[in-house]
């Protein structure tokens, strides 16, 4: 695939998601809460999770309207998690997506409420009054809930907080990041796949692809934390070292961590080849984008 074709596809889908977020994240919530939510989720981020949803849906010739709802829902969950993770009781960060974090801009109480509201809105978006088959609705809700909860993102964050200052072996570190970061990326792929009619073999291959790119994303994050500055990252660089957190770089070394990210990309490409899907080029490009990014 030509780079220009992929770039145009990314821009088009990002604009679709941005317009949908503009529409569904209202600024009319009471006491200024809507403005806080919009600050947290609009006009920022790579929209990687929505792109994975939509690329997977297109790979299986899925329902585009359902895929757009799934894309918005997963981005709302991602945004809520960032708001909460940045708070003083968690990672205590002051910079996100190149601007002050939500609790710095609006205070801790509003940040907590905005995160809560975006989490609820994600599931509201997935449960329209009409236009989506009940079985698909149930599947999307289940996938997103499992990825967000105790066995996924929340559980991973709990392990992360409990691991400060501790040494983790590679298996434990992989499990932490699979939960904290990888599962939501994998769920994005599977939510997109659920919008079509892929067979069991294709779904299994897409699940393997999602697991590989999900872990690769975190490995690259760990690499960038020590190789880029805050201006490029749009968030505080070097904070993992400052907070004495275990990372793939601290465990494997920089060069080995970089090789591991490329190995995971190769695993993702191999999974796509096994899927038998003829329209998976955008998923392949996204795997490359995840590993080759600089922020």
From TrEMBL:
It comes from the Bacteria. Pfam families: polyprenyl_synt. SUPFAM superfamilies: Terpenoid synthases (SSF48576). One of its GO terms (molecular function) is prenyltransferase activity. GO terms for biological process: terpenoid biosynthetic process. The lineage of its organism: Bacteria, Pseudomonadati, Pseudomonadota, Betaproteobacteria, Burkholderiales. Belongs to the FPP/GGPP synthase family. It comes from Scleromatobacter humisilvae. This is Polyprenyl synthetase family protein. Its cofactor is Mg(2+). One of its GO terms (cellular component) is cytoplasm. The keyword Metal-binding applies. PANTHER family: FARNESYL DIPHOSPHATE SYNTHASE. Keywords: Isoprene biosynthesis, Magnesium, Metal-binding, Transferase.
